[in-house]
Amino acid sequence: MSDRKVLVVANWKMHKTPQEGLTFARQLKTKALNLPAVNFILCPSATGLLHIHGEIRESALELGAQNLHFAEQGAFTGEISASMLNACGCKWVIIGHSERRYIFNEPAGDRQRKVPAALNSGLKVILCIGEVKAERDAGATAEVLKAQLANDLGGISRFPTDQLVIAYEPVWAIGSGVVALPAQVEEAHAVVRETIFQLFPSISSKHVSVIYGGSVNIANAAQLIATPGVDGFLIGGASLNIGDFVTIAQNAQTALKAEH
Ligand code: 13P
């Protein structure tokens, strides 16, 4: 597959002012020209979306939001709808990040409604799943991933494979500096594909992109991208620094080329 591309997603979480995001996007736009095998997605806070959209609209960089509400509009103070994100230039939205699940106690039923709300509005979805440390230690990782996928995708009966990306983010690896071992990532990504096939037998799960997140950095990116079943990265901390972020993308592109 010589046309294989790597997906490199920056999840800035609650970092960067609109101006800081804009400066980053401007720099990345230039540097990305040398990285044709990388698809970049920037997910700033909602406050930065419009600014960054204006900067990258003519470029290959794409814009994503970190969350959405499933309703089209209404009395939901503090929430943002799919159509609002579309109007800000978003092509993507992250759903089910572990920080939404565990810090904000997002109800599981919300994700069943968010996924179709996003897809029906034309937004592509990055659905995050992953086990906590106690679940891995108990040998329950596969079971947890299957249950999360079954729940979170429970509101749709099919999807175009280029509209949904699954991000495997073991919660214990997020922001901890402890990256999952390649064998653990390979196994988890295989479980994701197998489960997608079970849930949606008509969909070719090999065409569904599965990306890894959790302490991805300049030192581990090449090995991770060379791991079977890994189509890219969802990056938190290391996406805040333009130098690190671009180096990760470069390392991933180089590792991809070495495969051929
Ligand atoms: P870190 O890269 O900081 O571990 O965060 C990963 C993450 O949560 C991306 O969504």
Question: What's the arrangement of secondary structure elements?
Answer:
Elements: E1 6-11, H1 18-31, E2 38-43, H2 49-56, E3 62-65, H3 82-87, E4 92-95, H4 98-103, H5 108-121, E5 124-129, H6 133-137, H7 141-152, E6 164-168, H8 182-199, E7 209-213, H9 221-225, E8 232-235, H10 242-259
Parallel strand pairs: 1-2, 1-8, 2-3, 3-4, 4-5, 5-6, 6-7, 7-8
Helix pairs in contact: 1-2, 7-8
Bound molecules: 1,3-dihydroxyacetonephosphate.
List the defining traits of the structure above.
TIM Barrel; alpha/beta; 260 residues; 8-stranded parallel beta barrel; 8 strands; single chain; binds 1,3-dihydroxyacetonephosphate
- CATH superfamily, please? Aldolase class I
Gross geometry = globular
Q: Which strand-content bin applies to the residues?
A: 15-25%
Q: In CATH terms, what is the architecture?
A: Alpha-Beta Barrel
Sequence stretches where pLDDT stays below 50 over 5 or more residues: none
Write down the secondary-structure element order: EHEHEHEHHEHHEHEHEH
Mean pLDDT: 96
Query: Given the helix and strand composition, which structural class is it?
Result: alpha/beta
**Strand count:** 8
Task: Walk across the major sheet and give the strand order.
Answer: 1-2-3-4-5-6-7-8
CATH topology: TIM Barrel
Major β-sheet annotation: 8 strands, parallel, barrel
Oligomer: single chain
Number of domains: 1
Tell me the name of the CATH class. Alpha Beta
| Each distinct ligand | 1,3-dihydroxyacetonephosphate
The rounded distance between the terminal residues' Cα atoms is 8 Å
Calculate Rg over CA atoms: 17 Å
Share of helix, binned:
40-55%
